[in-house]
Amino acid sequence: MTKLSIDHPDVYVQLENAGFSVQLGRQNPFGTIPVDQTIEVTVNRDTQTPGGTKGFSLKPAALSRYYLTAEHRSTCLKELRDLTDIKPPGVSHHDLESSRIRKDELAVQSLVDFMETEWINPFSGDPTELISLSTGTVAPSDVQCTWRDSIQELSRRKNRTQKEAFP
User: Fold this and answer.
1) How many CA atoms within 13 Å lie on the side-chain side of 144?
2) What is the pTM of this model?
């Protein structure tokens, strides 16, 4: 996989563009699933009965027929919907509802206000110093030296790994 972009660039581009997934509905941008799972999800959704197979039958042969014919029932339901122009109800992700967006915006603003009034702003000042957000205390020089060394070592490892993966 590390050389996929070199050995098979067309497959690499397809993966980068989420080409091996299916978007089930326009209303839910988070609803992409793998291609091989799409048929299973569609059949399961189209053949749902209230309560599932619970109370449907206790006979193994009846349950077997129920599952063996699920694909055909799903196809018939789709054809019926197409003929009658009945569309399944659109599903909207709860994170996209206006009430949820307002709630998230308020939470972010509350966090920003808290950080600006009670803590120090981590995005202002000298970014090379290690500072406690809650107290504003600068870390001792030996701790800062260890911290910088750790950051530099992580950076070197990342660069070396990238060079090995993509020569």
Assistant:
1) 12
2) 0.34
